[in-house]
Specification:
By secondary structure, the protein is α/β, with parallel strands linked by helices. The chain folds into two domains: about 180 residues, 3-Layer(aba) Sandwich (D-Maltodextrin-Binding Protein, domain 2), CATH 3.40.190.10; about 90 residues, Osmoprotection protein (prox), domain 2 (D-Maltodextrin-Binding Protein, domain 2, 3-Layer(aba) Sandwich), CATH 3.40.190. The protein contains 14 helices and ten strands. It has a five-stranded mixed β-sheet. Strands 3-10-4 form a three-stranded antiparallel β-sheet. A two-stranded parallel ribbon has the order 1-2. α8 links the parallel β6 and β7. The longest helix has 16 residues. The two termini are about 30 Å apart.
Length: about 290
């Protein structure tokens, strides 16, 4: 979902190209992309496996989807957390599938056939696109769903990122599917500043990723996508088939914890890292203790 800058992606690619193949080491190599949520969830997987006696090597913060998938194909990592929507659209280049179960089944079957990679159980956590507002504004304008927002938009100011104004699953998609969505004003910001505009009163609603830590730390309201414009981005562990064949316990261990990774849990963990400065490994350990 969240993408690194080109410079960071090139640096990460240079770093992982020097990594040895996993089979030479014996330990299970767990990777992640280079944003908070991916790192924390990879830590959860790593610590759960370590508790079950599996030797683990962490190769976290590697880079973009393309970089992490390349590492999987080269057997430089064995496992990492991925999102169904990302796999469907960015890796397989398939049109969005809005039903979460169908999307998961499609990517599971495609990855097995094309890459010899298994999708384990998906979590209910869905890091999709969304629109957020404050509780006060939601009450004032009676906002619960995107249908509500479509009607109220002429009285509201939107803070967003530039690409949202042109993407077919951005503002044009909202206007096509819901009608309305003609805001009193629309201003674009760097991705890190759109929430600041909302919280300082410069905007009334802001585009979001639905598990952003700021949603939890600022007690924001995410409006329900009641007509289901956006596909699901459920997270799940991806494991190379050859690794699962050597250690089938991996499935049972990770499938047991995946149901506990919910939207609210992910938002809270992201906020602890990003707003409170806690270490991702510490946050992951606390999560595992909470579900034990």
């Amino acid at each position: 979902m969240k993408h690194p800058t080109r410079a960071r992606a090139i640096a990460a690619l240079s770093a992982f190209c020097a990594l040895p193949a996993c089979g030479a080491r014996g330990a299970l190599a767990i990777g992640s992309k280079n944003f908070t949520e991916s790192i924390v969830i990879a830590e959860i997987y790593a610590q759960a496996l370590e508790r079950a006696g599996t030797a683990v090597e962490r190769r976290l913060n590697l880079g973009s989807t393309q970089i992490v998938m390349a590492a999987m194909k080269r057997a430089q990592i064995d496992l990492y957390p991925e999102y169904t929507g990302t796999a469907l659209i960015d890796v397989l280049h398939h049109a969005p599938i809005r039903d979460p179960a169908r999307s998961y089944a499609f990517v599971r079957d495609a990855y097995a056939a094309r890459f010899a990679i298994a999708w384990l159980a998906r979590s209910p956590m869905n890091d999709s696109q969304g629109i957020a507002t404050t509780a006060a504004i939601a009450r004032r304008y009676h906002l619960r769903t995107l249908s509500d927002l479509a009607l109220a938009a002429p009285r509201l100011r939107l803070a967003t990122i530039p690409e949202f104004l042109s993407r077919p699953d951005g503002l044009p998609g909202l206007q096509r599917l819901y009608g309305g969505f003609h805001f009193a004003s629309v201003r674009t910001y760097d991705i890190a500043l759109k929430y600041q505009a909302l919280l300082t009163g410069a905007a009334d609603v802001a585009t979001a990723f639905t598990t952003d830590g700021t949603i939890a730390s600022a007690h924001l309201v995410v409006l329900e996508d009641d007509r289901r414009l956006w596909p699901a981005y459920n997270v799940a562990p991806l494991v190379r088939n050859s690794v699962l064949a050597r250690d089938p316990r991996i499935s049972a261990i990770l499938d047991a914890i995946s149901p506990a990774i919910t939207d609210s849990a992910a938002r809270a963990m992201n906020a602890q890292v990003e707003a409170q400065g806690r270490d991702p490994a510490e946050v992951a350990a606390a999560f595992l203790r909470s579900i034990a």
